Amino acid sequence: MIEYRIGAWPWIAALGFRNPRNPDKPLWKCRGSLISARHVLTAAHCAHMDGIENIHNHNIAILTLMEEVPFS
């Protein structure tokens, strides 16, 4: 495990998903790169974990955030 301090890599995004067993504790299953104040670049399987979208036709996803992330 790599130790780091918060803010060491400000472009890294941790992607949390709703945990059906414990709604107050997200599942941190994916990571991504902050490419603008409102966009995260990640793997396609992180954006379509429910299986609705055929991830075999895609290899990246760009997530649009509801709010801008302040840059530090």
Automatic annotation (TrEMBL):
The primary gene name is LOC117215557
Under the heading Pfam families, the entry gives: Trypsin
What InterPro entries does this protein map onto? CLIP_Serine_Protease, Peptidase_S1_PA, Peptidase_S1_PA_chymotrypsin, Trypsin_dom
Peptidase S1 domain residues are 3-49
Q: Could you tell me what this protein is called?
A: Venom serine protease Bi-VSP-like
Q: Name one GO molecular function term.
A: serine-type endopeptidase activity
Biological source species: Bombus bifarius
Q: Which GO terms are recorded in the biological process aspect for this UniProt protein?
A: proteolysis
Q: Give the superkingdom in one word.
A: Eukaryota
